Amino acid sequence: MPRPRTIGILGGMGPEATILLQRKLVEAVPARDDGDHIPLFIDMNSQVPSRIAHLIDGTGIDPGPTLAAMARRLQAAGAVALAMPCNTAHHYAGAITQAVDIPLLNMVDLAADHAAETLGAGGCVGMLASPAVRRTALFEKALSKRGLSVVWPAQDAPMLAAIRAIKVDSQSAQARETLLAASHELLAAGAGLQFVACSEFSIIADSVAPDANAVDTIDLLVRAIIDTSQSDHIRP
Q1: Which helix (H) or strand (E) holds 7?
Q2: Of 130, 139, 109, nearest to 201 (Cα)?
């Protein structure tokens, strides 16, 4: 097996979600020594302008230039590929990929590919994500290309309130109740697969409905990071 190569992480959105990704990476590698683990450069930039303020409130600064600068720093440090454990920030993926010559492991595309493999054309995917993701139609665009439909919880406000609550208290009981109710709602709406597609919700992903076929997009990113780091070839 080739020596694992370094992946650059655009982090801090939010900080605890970035730590969650790192912990999942450590747990996913069957290591016998430190050198078996995936080497990472992590830009834990909690000062990235708010995606919610920019996309929902319409008053915030465009995060794209900040993310592009982070990507350039990570490439200059020696990262062979980039990953970003924030679904909403993938709205700015173009700004990142245009700034560097290394690939971004796009979590939206990874999820859409997984849904297509799991459900096949005509399947319905339920989204447990930020209303900002809904507004940008990030997943709709990727999933519709693969013949899949999307269903969302009827109300955006409780989901946004839950995200904000998790940023204050990662184990918020209110947020857990909201996520559970939304997951049940998606089940009733016919979703054959549910994506936990907000890294704040990833922290409480065990709160989805027990009978839901739910997948955390961060888990898909973890697998892609490991495969890319351990691969002989990095796609352009």
Answers
A1: strand 7-11
A2: 130
Condensed to tens digits (0 to 9), the pLDDT of residues 190-236 reads 999 999 999 999 999 999 999 999 999 999 999 999 999 998 766 55
Gap between the Cα atoms of 93 and 68, Å rounded: 9
- Tens of pLDDT, residues 162-202: 999 999 999 999 999 999 999 999 999 999 999 999 999 99
81 contacts 104 by C-beta, under 8 angstroms: yes
The single residue listed with the structure tokens 């559970």 is 180
Give the whole-angstrom CA distance, residue 234 versus residue 82.
11
Quote the pTM value: 0.95
CATH number of 7-106+219-230: 3.40.50.1860
Same fold, 7-106+219-230 and 107-217: yes
d(Cα 3, Cα 37) in Å, to the nearest integer?
Answer: 10
Given a contact cutoff of 8 angstroms between Cβ atoms, the answer to whether 223 and 21 are in contact is no
The reply to whether CATH 3.40.50.1860 applies to domain 107-217 is yes
Give the pairing of strands 124-128 and 149-151: parallel
Please tell me the distance from the alpha carbon of residue 3 to that of residue 232, in angstroms, as a whole number. Answer: 9
Catalytic residues: 86, 198
Residue 178's pLDDT is what? 98
